[in-house]
Amino acid sequence: MVAPMLLVIAGVSGCGKTSVGQALANHLGAQFFDGDDFHPEANVAKMRSGQSLNDEDRAPWLGRLNELMREQAMQGHSVVLACSALKVKYREILGRGLPTLRFVHLKGEREILFERMQARKHRYMPASLLDSQFATLEAFDASAYEIDVAVPLDQVVAKAVKLITLNA
Fold first, then answer.
1. pTM to 2 decimals?
2. Which end of the chain has less Cβ packing within 10 Å, N or C?
3. CB within 8 A of 21, min separation 6: which ones?
4. Residues 78-121: pLDDT tens digits?
5. Interatomic CA distance for residues 100 and 117, integer angstroms
6. Left, alpha or beta for 89 (phi > 0: left; psi -120 to 50: alpha)?
C-alpha cells in the first residue's frame, strides 16, 4: 500500500494558503482542511481583537491538527492542510508521528500580502496582524518546497504540483 501524501501549505496571512491548498487537494484527490477552522474560540476572539497568538495559544490547536492528519493517514487518506506553521517548533508539533509530512512554504513580499489582506474579508484575521506574523516566521529547512506567490494562483498551484510530483 502506498503511504498517503501529507502536505501542509504554510506561510503568513495573505499568502494564499487556503486557495492554493484547496486547488492542490482537488488536483491530488486529497482531503483539504483549513487550520483556521480548528482554532478554539478563545484564539479567534484574541485575533479578532487585533492581538497576535502566543506559543501557549497555538499549542493545543497545533496538537489537534497533528491528530487530524494522523487520523486521516490511518484511514489511508492523503491530506492537504492550510496552516501558518510559522515556527520550527510548530512544524515539529504538526509532524509528530508523520514521517512523510512535507511543507509547502508560500512566501511573498509584505506589501503584496498586506494589500491582499486589506482586499479580502477574513472572518477574524485583520491585516494589522501581518507584521506580527512576519516577526514570528522562522526559516523553513531545505526539505520544504518554497514558492513565491507574486504570480497568479494557477501558476503557484502548477509549481507546487511540479515540485511535489518530482519529489514523490
1. 0.90
2. N
3. 9, 32, 34, 80, 81, 82
4. 999 999 999 999 999 999 999 999 999 999 988 888 787 766 66
5. 32
6. alpha
Output 57-64 pairs: Cβ under 8 A, ≥24 positions apart: 58/90, 59/93, 61/35, 62/90, 62/93, 62/94, 63/93, 64/38
**Residue 164 to residues 101, 106, 126, Cα–Cα distance (Å):** 12, 14, 31
Residue type for 11, please?
G
Residues in the chain: 168
**Cell numbers 506589501: residue:** 111
Identity of the residue numbered 112: I
Q: Which helix (H) or strand (E) holds 82?
A: strand 79-82
Give me the pLDDT at residue 22, please: 97
